[in-house]
Amino acid sequence: MKAHWTDQAVTLLDPVDTAYLTPGPVLDRSDLLSSPNARRRPRWPLVAVGAVVLLGGASALAATQLGGGDTHIVNLQCVTPSGDTAGQVRTGDPIADCAAIWKQESDLPVPPLKAYVFNNVTFYVQPANSPAPTDPRMRPLTGHTQTDPALTELQSALADRLAGPESRCMTTDEARATIASTLTRVGLNDVPITLLNDHGKPRTADGATGCADAALDTSSEHTEVALFSVPASLRDVPDRDSTFVNNLRAAATSCTTLNEAIGAVRRVAASSGVASDQLDIASRVDEAATCTRMYVEYGGEILVSLTGPR
Questions:
Q1: If you average pLDDT over residues 256-275, what whole number do you get?
Q2: Nearest residue to 114 (alpha-carbon basis) of 34, 21, 40, 8
Q3: Which of 37-46, 115-124, 175-184 is the most confident on average?
Q4: Closest CA to 101 of 119, 84, 118
Q5: pLDDT of residue 187
Q6: pTM of the predicted model, to two decimals?
């Protein structure tokens, strides 16, 4: 597997010969959108205790407060030569994100890509010369859609291992306070936090065992953050990853520009024994920010998301 640094949004390569792509149904993989077979990158779909599946979707709040259209979609599925990869939109541009994933998972050049929207909940990206998906719930993505950056950052913050709900074994009350602070920081104060039981139903009291976990849920009438409990064993991480996060915390609390933060992440990774092909950095410029905000997620690799000034 050939990996690349992905510090900035990817610019697609010039059109290339895509004859190596099988021009048949093997690349029409929309059936995997509703199955567990696609390889996962954090954090979609999220399966909670009791097999509660939280998927993103259209919502009244997204249509009014977040600009409408497809800007509320944070879920992503990419078709690459090595299979389907499910994850989240990181730069805000689903085609750019899938181009980055393609480059990480294959030595083949990135062909022109085309994006679709599945059931108003997920961006689905495949080579442009592949047959159009036949699933009636799939429609072509029109225009240049960018996922609302506030939702992208919120999604990263909910999975953050530096200071988010997954950074330690929090109670749901502790996690609620942490999430409320994040909602204020990204300007989504009106998004409610709903505490769920093991069957995905709201509950009013904590009293849960295990550790708190959270997911952005836009499958109901209103966008919300779903809060629930998971077994404490899900907080166990490899020594390599915990060493990296512990060493990175000092950098995360420093006030830096985006480029300074990228340099700090690379240095900490090198000193923590994290190989470059196991580290994925995505960054977004926010000139209104004073300092860079940093989030770390675990998957098959370590994903670092940065938002800040140049």
A1: 95
A2: 21
A3: 175-184
A4: 84
A5: 93
A6: 0.72
Beta bridge partners of 57: none
List pLDDT tens digits, range 115-145.
Answer: 999 988 899 999 999 999 999 999 999 877 7
Q: Which residues contact 207 (CB under 8 A, 6 or more apart)?
A: none
User: Which of 112, 76, 114, 73 has the alpha carbon at shortest distance from 97?
Assistant: 76
283-289-293 Cα angle (round to 5): 50
CA distances from residue 171 to 7, 33, 44 in whole angstroms, order as listed: 34, 32, 23
* Residue labelled with tokens 């989030």: 295
State both tokens at 49. Answer: 């205790």
Type of residue found at 114 = K
> What HEC string does the chain produce?
CCCCCCCCCCCCCCCCCCCCCCCCHHHCCHHHHHCCCCEECCCCCEEECCCEEECCCCCHHHHHHCCCCCCCCCEEEEEECCEEEEEECCCCCHHHHHHHHHHHHCCCCCCCEEEEEECCCEEEEEECCCCCCCCCCEEECCCCCCCCHHHHHHHHHHCCCCCCCCCCCCCHHHHHHHHHHHHHHCCCCCCCEEEECCCCCECCCCCCCCEEEEEEECCCCCCEEEEEEECHHHHCCCHHHHHHHHHHHHHHCCCCCHHHHHHHHHHHHHHCCCCHHHEEEEEEECCCCCCCEEEEEECCCEEEEEEECC
